[in-house]
Write a structure and sequence with these properties.
Blueprint (H helix, E strand, L loop, with lengths): L4 E7 L2 H5 L2 H9 L3 E8 L10 H7 L6 E3 L8 H22 L3 E5 L3 H12 L4 E4 L9 H11 L2 E3 L3 H9 L13 H7 L27 E4 L10 H15 L3 E4 L7 H15 L4 E4 L4 H9 L4 E3 L6 H6 L3 E4 L12 E4 L3 H14 L13 H11 L12
Parallel strand pairs: 1-2, 1-4, 2-3, 4-5, 5-6, 7-8, 7-10, 8-9, 10-11, 11-12
Helix pairs in contact: 2-14, 4-5, 5-6, 9-10, 9-13
């Protein structure tokens, strides 16, 4: 019997995990593959929801953990965290000796993974390449594409862009987005204890009653503007005055500004209609947004999962500029009145028709299959146009 192909997956944040969980399951079940899981960065930190606890609860035991976050949440610490990630991941790759490293999307931890693997001559597979957005994510995503040997884009247009970037067409496999897999065939009804199980801070909310969800991350290329930006969203939500589930921002540069704005508002206003949470499991987050009246903010989940579910979304600011989206998404500027009017309009509109733009729920199985079958020889990178 031939040796199983070792696939090392790096999970570094709650968003990372949501977009790769189905692939982890598929690799784990595949008879020709062996899963190696490295959990690191913000996925290990309490203030970002202890994602590693969710991972273990789902039945995945990490092969290694990597602490690489330099405190500060500014551009300097973001760059240093990337460097720390390269150092730590290189050590783990040397220990685990994977046949392939699989990395997700466009975060600074993803960049660290790509650099370490490619310099160590380990074939690199990349999900969600070829997409267009705002912030530093755009640059990071395309840089990782040029370091990657195997590509698993989520949409047809993204796959076409990869070809135009000079990638070998035979190494580009259109799979859809793995984030859709987890929600494609599950019961999305809210459970009565959905909010109680996750604690958080704020007045008690009843998941049976109408509510909105807000999730707004910092925009790295607009560092220093986060405090003012989140205040505009807060003003709009205050004017809407609906029961609100607000999730904490990610660890990117500017996170402290967003967090400060939320804390100041919470202490000053004592809003009886907002409950703040750190994290939800992949499945419960899907239930959360599926049963909401509207999702407000700049998370790609509104565009990916939101389009599949038909959830009304108000996309705030530039973080998702030019990303493909379904008709469920409308854009708003960093202006409270604009956000308020767009949110009011989306709530009044209600549900949209479901879209399969980002996949049909089978991405994980497809990716595992390709990882088992694809040749790992002759992976010298070359421009092909």
């Amino acid at each position: 019997m031939s040796e199983k192909r070792r696939i090392c997956v790096v999970v570094a944040s709650r968003a990372n995990y949501g977009r790769i969980k189905s692939v982890l399951n598929a690799i784990k079940k595949h008879p020709q593959l062996e899963l190696q899981l490295i959990v690191g960065a913000s996925a290990l930190l309490h203030r970002f929801g202890n994602v590693i606890d969710v991972i273990r609860k789902d039945g995945f035991e990490p092969s290694a953990t990597v602490y690489s976050i330099v405190e500060g949440e500014n551009p300097t610490t973001m760059a240093k965290s990337t460097g720390m990630g390269i150092l730590e991941l290189a050590t783990q790759f040397e220990n685990l000796r994977p046949h392939v490293v699989l990395t997700v999307a466009d975060r600074f931890e993803t960049m660290a993974t790509a650099i370490a693997a490619s310099y160590m001559n380990i074939p690199l597979a990349h999900t969600q390449g070829g997409e267009v957005t705002g912030s530093i994510d755009e640059s990071v995503r395309h840089a990782i594409t040029k370091l990657s040997h195997i590509h698993f884009p989520a949409t047809k247009l993204s796959a076409e862009r990869l070809v135009k970037m000079g990638e070998e067409p035979e190494r580009i496999k259109l799979t859809g987005c793995p984030a859709i897999d987890a929600i494609s065939d599950m019961d999305l009804s809210n459970t009565p204890d959905l909010f109680k199980r996750y604690g958080g801070v704020g007045p008690e909310l009843d998941p049976k009653n109408p509510y909105i969800v807000v999730l707004q991350h910092p925009v790295t290329t607009e560092y220093g503007q986060g405090f003012d930006q989140i205040n505009e969203t807060l003003k709009a939500v205050k004017k809407l005055r609906r029961p609100t589930v607000w999730l904490w921002p990610n660890v990117d540069a500017g996170s402290d500004d967003i967090s400060k704005g939320l804390r100041v508002f919470r202490e000053k206003e004592r809003p009886e209609y907002i409950h703040f949470f750190r994290n939800f499991s992949v499945e419960d987050y899907a239930k959360l947004i599926n049963n909401s009246e509207c999702l407000i903010g700049n998370s790609s989940s509104g565009i990916r999962e939101g389009s599949f579910l038909g959830v009304p979304v108000v996309n705030v600011g530039t973080r998702q500029t030019n990303r493909e989206r379904g008709e469920n998404v409308i854009d708003a500027t960093y202006n409270s009145e604009d956000i308020f009017q767009k949110a009011k309009s989306q709530i009044e509109h209600g549900r949209y028709k479901k879209s399969n733009l980002f996949g049909d729920g089978q991405a994980g199985v497809r990716i595992a299959g390709y990882l088992a079958e694809m040749s790992l020889k002759n992976l010298q990178k070359r421009l092909t146009y």
